[in-house]
Amino acid sequence: MRAAVRKTMTESMGYSDSEHIPVMREEVIDSLQCRPGGIYVDATIGLGGHALGILEKIQPGGRLIGIDRDKESLEKAEARLKSFRGSYRLFHDNFKNLPLILNNLAIEPVDGILLDLGVSSYQLLSPERGFSFQFDSPLDMRMDRTQQWSAADLVNSTSEKELADIIYRYGEERLSRRIAAAIVQQRSKSPVTRTAQLAGILNRVFRVRSRHGIHPATRTFQALRIAVNEELEGLADFLSEAIGFLRSGGRIAVISFHSLEDRIVKRTFRSLAGQCICGAPPELCTCPKQTLAYIRTPRPLTPNPGELAVNPRARSARLRVLEKI
Ligand SMILES: C[S@@+](CC[C@H](N)C(=O)[O-])C[C@H]1O[C@@H](n2cnc3c(N)ncnc32)[C@H](O)[C@@H]1O
Q1: Where does the pLDDT of residue 14 fall: very low under 50, low under 70, confident under 90, or very high at 90 and above?
Q2: Which of 45, 48, 87, 193 could bridge to 66 as Cys pair (CB 3.0-4.6 Å)?
């Protein structure tokens, strides 16, 4: 679809092109079975797109707890949700601290928890945040700007082997060793502190654009972002713990955008549903077979073609849903 036509469509939906369009919004709201009077957690509230849909469905009497580690996004969410003031509480925090937040609020079991992982378009397209090679800016990539460790720190102080491993693992980049070597060679002359510097190094490694039309810098930038923000660390533990805060019949919905992320969600859900995750023959399997939940999506839900036409950034999204017994 031509960009101009897509832009008109997104504008007609009430979103500007740099704004984040909530992915699979209707599917998420249906999956969470949002109902009036219910209590829901949006643990990655971002700009509040899903949260707004949830708040509309849970009135009268419903409450929403919203969390994001990005203060700027949280401020935008607050502005967007203001007509529901009194029905929500927002927290600038890592969602891994949800147990603490719910304990402090002395909140009863909740009806649903949403995790919409990764970065928002707002973060990606904010030039000064350093997430994208499309703008020249400090090599930052921190979702939480109160965090000390940035992408520049990672790129300039990590060993060549570790850099190659990060780029290979989180970016699934075949040329990870060559890229790491080129970065280390460059930083021996002067530190790599800007996105354009890193993009220049990557352009020299690749020389030509990749065959699939993806810019060759995409995978390395994604890998560094995942590493800087420790996006995969503790996700499985969080999901296992979060189920303890759901009421019986309550649901957790997770949208992931990366195969490693999706694999963690799939395995953890299987484990919580009492299924084997070790892959050993049944007589040798030692997986704990305690069934705490049902998997509501044997196969992950994906965006429909209509959504993809308007929002191609949703193309790698996978939605998985679990229901507590
Ligand atoms: C894809 S966006 C969510 C967009 C949101 N659903 C909406 O409709 O606007 C992901 C958000 O999760 C936040 N995030 C990622 N990891 C987080 C974590 N561990 N704790 C809290 N927020 C996190 C990011 O800062 C980002 O704003």
Answers
A1: very low
A2: 45
